[in-house]
Design goal:
about 325 residues; mainly alpha; 15 helices; disordered N terminus; about 80% helix; single chain; disordered C terminus
Amino acid sequence: MKLSAKKTPKLILALRWFGTLVNVALFFWLLTQQNWALALKKSGDITPGAFLWAAVLFIISVMFNTLRWCILLWAQDVKIDFWRALEIVWAGNFASNFLPSTVGGDGFRMLAIFPVVGRKTLAVGSVMLDRLTNMASMLILTPLPLWMFSALWANFTLQSSVALLASPKRLFEKYAPKFFNAYKIWSSRPQALFYAFLAAMPSNLIFTLAILALARGLHLPVSFLQVLSVQTATYFLSLLPISVNGYGLRELTYTALYTALGVSTEQASALALVSRLLIILTTLPGALWLSKIGAELPHGALEQELNEENQIL
C-alpha cells in the first residue's frame, strides 16, 4: 500500500521522534551501567565561572554565524542590519530545539528573511549557502577525527551510511533547483563566498573553546585538538535526520568519543549533559524574538511554512 504524500512526511517526522527517544534511552541506559549518581554529581561540580565563560564564547560563536549569513545577504544588497539578522538567527536556534535534525531552525530563517529580501529563491538560497559554507569549514577539519579515532571510525561510518540512506530525497528534489538558481547569483560575487567561509572558521573554533571551558571546569584531561576532533565528528553525525536537534545521538557520541580518549564514562556523560544545558539556556532569548518575528508574519503563515520545512529538513 502506497502512502500518500501528505502522510509520508508525518511518518518521517514520527520516525525521527522515535529515533530521538531511542538515542536518549540508550544514553541513559549507558549511564545506568556506570555510576549515575557520580555523573550527576560531576555535572553539578562545574564552577560558575567556567559555565559563564563558556556561555560568553557560545554567544560570540553565534555572532560569527550571523556575520557569515549577513555577508551572503549584503552581497545581494539586502537591506538588513547585523542586529536584526542576529534576532532571526537566535530565534532559529531556539526553534531548532524542537524541530527535526539540527537544521530545523533553517526553515524558520528562510521564512523570517523572506519579507526582507522579497524573493523566495534568495531567501532559501541564502540560508542553504550559509549552511553549506559552515559545513565546508567543518569538512576541512575531518582529517583530525579520522586520525584520532581511527579505531572507532569503521563503526561510525557504517552507522552514518545506514542513516544517510534513510534520509528523504525530497530535500534535494525541492531545494536543488532553487539552490542552483540562487548560486548563479552569488557566483558573480565569489568574494562574498570566500568571506563567508572565513567567518565560519572562528565560529566553529570559538564554539570548541566553549566546550573546552566546560571540560576544564569538569576537570576532564583533554586538549583543544581532542575537543575539536569530538566536535567535528559530532557535528556531522548530528546532521543526520534521525533525531530532533541531535538529542540522544549527540550525548551518545560525546560519551563514546571522550571515553575513547581515556575520559571516564561519568565525566564524559557530565560534559554531554552540561554542554546540552548550555546550548538550551543560551538559545532562550530566541524565544522572545521568535514570538516577535512570528507576530509580524501574515496570520497562519508561520505554522504553514514551518510545517512544510519540518517535513523535509
